[in-house]
Amino acid sequence: MTKKMDNTTRYERLRERYMNGDLDRRSFLGMIGAAGLAYGVQTPFAKYAHAAAGEVRFDGWGGVVSEAFREHAFDPFTEKTGIPVVDGTFGGGDEYLSRVKASQEGEYNIAHLSGVFDYARYYNLGLASTLNEDNIPNLKFVIPKLVDVFRNVSDGALSCVPYDYGTTGLAYNRKYISDEEMKEKGAKILIDEAYKGKIAGWGDWRTRIWFGSLQTDQDPNGATDMEAVWDAIRAHRDLSLKYWTSGAELMSLLAEEEIYVTEGWSGRIYALQEQGHDIGYMDPPNGYGWQECLFVMKGSPMEACEELLNFMLAPETSIAVAEGQNYPPALDPQQVDLGSKIPTLPAFDPTGTLSGLTFADPAYWNVNEAEWSKTFGRVQKGY
Amino acid sequence: MSVEAREARQPWILLSPALTAVALFLFVPLLFILVYSFWLRTATGADQAGFYLDNWREALTDAFYRDILFSTLRIAAITTLVCALMGYPAAYFIARSKGNKAILLLLLMLPFWISYIIRTMSWINILGVSGALNTFLLWTGIITDPIQMLYNETTVILGLVHFLLPFMVLNVFVSLEGIDTNLEDAANSLGATRWETFLQVTLPLSLPGLAAGGLLCFVLGAGTYITPLVLGGPRDAMFANLVFEAIITQLNWPLGSALSLMLLAVLGVLVMIYNRYLGMAQLMKGLG
Fold it and tell me: Is B234 close to A380, i.e. CB distance below 8 A?
């Protein structure tokens, strides 16, 4: 099967040929120059060409997640339909939104977005498409609650399909912290002086405020004493070795024992456990639950995108991806047999109601986003 | 057309591709950034076009930005000083070595063949709790528990020195290469010791190279963003990180534009001071 090659790979192959002596310097530089010229000339027209060719660009979280998508969804999809899928990665929803804002319409097509609040931000910025649900019959397998929350944001229509869910819970090294201690201290272990210098956290303002709310015994979707929350964030900052910025960094810090405890993404921690690391994972009461969706940007080739979404929601694809990325699929376990591995994944809800998970309320978070993201930037730097 | 007129036009014809590139890829984007800095970010994250001074007022009057700017300049200054102290002897050694100069220069250039990010991240494998240095110290019995060496301001400066040292060495080397060694011989024959010759002849003549290296190290160091992100702790941010946060995390492009222009202005003033007293010719020599 022919894999879709991105420009970086093309360049690396060319460079390898040059380094091996298969290409003389003149040809090498000529090809680089020609590529640059071609890129400059074609960029304004790329979206039309991509749309005409039915090519779809997909952006996700990288690491084991992207590998699972590539292996279990994109390659089989291309093989079946002939539609190439070019996949890129991002470090977080904020960074990706900035890239989309700077791009031309149609340049980005589908994104693996996290949380309903992200969906609402994209929708409010006018970046949302409207899906033709008739082209996505496999949507019927999805947990209804997950679909409804998106519909409520976009006036009944859908710009995405729910795909998976997970939690941001507490990850700890069992060599140094027992399960009993974790149960006793919960989220407050992240501000425990005993582990100064061995604590970390995600440098994401929402996550910091969520856990700050838990540490001050407040509702994470309705904190009333924000000063107390900021103080808890300051305490965590002063005890932390580092704020991590990606799943790969989270896994590295825990695996290398640079830190003993942090909050972490359930699927990544499961991947560490699968690798043999003795890392425990616990969702504290009111732990941070989230659902991820496959969001289609305005200006995308809709039929190709809808075909890909339908393919990805097919139970066999969805289950294979879920097993690869270690996050439960959005499929309703009451309708679909999810096999043997998925029920063992963190955050899995066999009832399909997801009543045990607390999700971020977009009405609460998005209205405070501008102020809190800015304040967190200052608190992070010692203020 | 007269010969004189043709000769007068020739430099402009030859310069036109470079000038076009500079205009298109530097001045036009800068103009966009300037315009953006007067816009506002709305509650949804969309930009509101117009002429508002809010971002500039905030950037210039808020103590938070001033403190981070001073901290950035301090880190860049320390880095420059360390680069000068480490780079000068290395450059002197290369300039005065016989026969193997080309190999030494090649070794100096080798780090540029590896990505800056990879070079920065390599310190994690060296200084980390289970990194090479801790493993060695534990193995020799010098320590019984790993030492926490990473994720602080010192490692940020270390990463910057690692990145910027070759720029300093190259500039000082070029300057030393341009010194007539007969001058040093003359000083020696007039009774000066080797140390006095260095202090009174070599060092003063090589100062333009040292200054050019210093300027490059300072400007590049002050504008860095990756090093504090990879090697710094929660508080170790530099001014470029604020620009990143404003633009990426807060989706506040107008404020980010004002902040980036502010940094550009501060560094631009430094370059102008350098140009006023030393001229750009030395810098061009070092870069060449």
Answer: yes
